[in-house]
């Protein structure tokens, strides 16, 4: 019998109660389970821990799965600001963060992330870790805003940069696909960044701001 490489890797890890609760909560609330893949969730924890980041910004909260992974990487002081369009999603995410014992580490800002980012910039806020995972059409704007809010050395991560095969299918030319292609090109070529793009799962871009 042959299982997939991803299934094999998952089988090595114990069930994670806090993350399993998020998955169950998404189903119970009729929300889509488009949380970050388990392996990349673990990578988010590692990247936060390895970078020593303490001011985290997430764009797209859903049910709090990636929020839990990000906050788990914090050492001591530090917190997460999470931008989410839908108030009921932010409420579900907050409940899952609370249940994981991390509720006091996160602040949700409800509304279109583009407006929230402008307000954060006007307020002079800066961050040292960004997780971009909201509407794909917004990715190029989110990248520029992240660079504008970044402290030197800040980490920028972008999820789903392969769009389940659409990114590499040249018959697909819709606005999300085109936006993600420009995001990927910018990640790879912007001289302000050092980056890599991992093609596993649904693709993950990782960069630091020089
Ligand atoms: N990061 C989450 C998954 C996010 S799914 C995780 O891995 O657990 C994408 C989320 O982005 C959804 O919750 C959706 O409501 C939100 N979203 C979509 N468009 C948005 C926008 N313009 N501004 C802020 N959030 C948005
Ligand atoms: Mg995602």
Tell me about this structure.
- By secondary structure, this protein is of the alpha/beta class.
- It has a single domain, classed as Rossmann fold (3-Layer(aba) Sandwich).
- It has 8 helices and 7 strands; from the N terminus they run H-H-H-E-H-E-H-E-H-E-H-E-H-E-E.
- Strands 3-2-1-4-5-7-6 form a 7-stranded mixed beta sheet, with helices on both faces.
- Helix 5 links the parallel strand 2 and strand 3 (106-110).
- The termini are far apart.
- The mean pLDDT is 97.
- Bound molecules: S-adenosyl-L-homocysteine and magnesium ion (MG).
- Magnesium ion is lined by residues 34, 36, 133, 159-160.
Q: Class in CATH? A: Alpha Beta
CATH architecture descriptor: 3-Layer(aba) Sandwich
C-alpha Rg, in Å? 16 Å
Order of the strands making up the biggest sheet: 3-2-1-4-5-7-6
Can you write the helix and strand succession as a string? HHHEHEHEHEHEHEE
Structural class: alpha/beta
Task: Compile the SSE list and pairings.
Layout: H1 5-11, H2 17-28, H3 38-51, E1 55-59, H4 65-72, E2 79-84, H5 87-99, E3 106-110, H6 113-122, E4 127-132, H7 139-149, E5 150-159, H8 175-189, E6 193-198, E7 204-209
This protein binds S-adenosyl-L-homocysteine and magnesium ion.
Magnesium ion binds at residues 34, 36, 133, 159-160.
List keywords for this structure.
210 residues, alpha/beta, Rossmann fold, seven-stranded mixed β-sheet, 8 helices, binds S-adenosyl-L-homocysteine, binds magnesium ion
Quick summary of this structure?
This protein is of the alpha/beta class and 210 residues long.
